Amino acid sequence: MNKIKTWARNLKKYVYVLYFAYKDPRVPWYAKVFTACVVAYAFSPIDFIPDFIPVLGYLDDIIIVPLGIKLALKMIPNAVIKDCEEKAEELMVKGKPKNWLVGTLIIIFWGIILIWGSMAIFQYIK
């Protein structure tokens, strides 16, 4: 059980590392794009495979996110990773900051998608 907790903590740490690396000007643009996608997917409550589907639901959390993190880390220079690891450690000790504006924008975005999808389904049913 301790191995799983350590693995999950390291996974969380590296999501924060990627978050800080995305903002670093030393990271190439293609790595920033990929890193932003990995971080957004890791923090998003929406998954490709919903968690309520037995076994497959947690597959993305166990395989897709760690694989994305690993690929993103390979694209980022080692010096940047080292700097960002220090920032991530500090953030994990202090606790993550809350950005209510970004949270609100994400909720609005998914709300619009949900409404649009519902309207499309109702148009199709008619």
From TrEMBL:
<dbReference type="GO" id="GO:0012505">
    <property type="term" value="C:endomembrane system"/>
</dbReference>
<feature type="transmembrane region" description="Helical">
    <location>
        <begin position="100"/>
        <end position="125"/>
    </location>
</feature>
<keyword id="KW-1133">Transmembrane helix</keyword>
<dbReference type="InterPro" id="IPR010652">
    <property type="entry name" value="DUF1232"/>
</dbReference>
<feature type="domain" description="DUF1232">
    <location>
        <begin position="31"/>
        <end position="67"/>
    </location>
</feature>
<keyword id="KW-0472">Membrane</keyword>
<keyword id="KW-0812">Transmembrane</keyword>
<dbReference type="Pfam" id="PF06803">
    <property type="entry name" value="DUF1232"/>
</dbReference>
<feature type="transmembrane region" description="Helical">
    <location>
        <begin position="29"/>
        <end position="46"/>
    </location>
</feature>
<protein>
    <recommendedName>
        <fullName>DUF1232 domain-containing protein</fullName>
    </recommendedName>
</protein>
